[in-house]
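Reviewers of the previous submission asked for a worked example of the structure-prediction workflow described in the proposal, so we include one complete record here. The input consisted solely of the amino acid sequence. No template or homolog information was supplied to the procedure at any stage.
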Amino acid sequence: MPKFPREAAAYAEFVTGPARHFARQPPELTAEEAGGLALAGLTAWQVLVETADIQPGQRVLIPAAAGGVGHLAVQIAKARGAYVIGTASATKHEFVRGLGADEVIDHYTDDPGDVVRDIDLAIATVAGQVPALRRTLRPGGVIVALNSADAQDVVAAGGRFLLVEPDRVGLEALAQLVQAGKLRVHVERVFPLAEAAAAHRLSETGRTTGKIVLRP
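From that input alone, the workflow returned the following structure tokens.
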């Protein structure tokens, strides 16, 4: 995460970076959970809080709500008092509801653009979702896209493209939510550093729940 989006081009046991890119690990998290929180958590925080300024009662649509960014975004949105609708495969509905989602729809059988309405914020977590998500918005609602492949489409639709930035203040805010019991990190699998390639192969299936973590 330090110096992101400049690519580190490697995994390592130690890293250097500007002090403003770091925050203390809350004692409530294991090292693996803390490692899974930073980039995905800051992405969700910067969409929901710094970009959309979500307020109590607003309606938030989070596709892939069981994923790395998605499962954290559900919890942050609920901590802000939002009404949260998530999409996930049927086998993950219980998990997403356990995070606090008010509604969960099966993205394999239902198009959010057909079954969801009056959304204040829709987060395009996966490329190619912008046209469907646009149909869910209320007047004045916004889409924020996280994939660079959607950057032109989302801006043309009146939305925004977000590339997460390292930020100590945001990390400390996430730590406060953890300490308040309002945010937890689900780690599906921990790989030793030597098996980084296997971790990538699992990630590329697009079917993991929560985070995949490498342990140096």
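The chain has a mean pLDDT of 95. We consider this example representative of the routine output the project will generate in years two and three.
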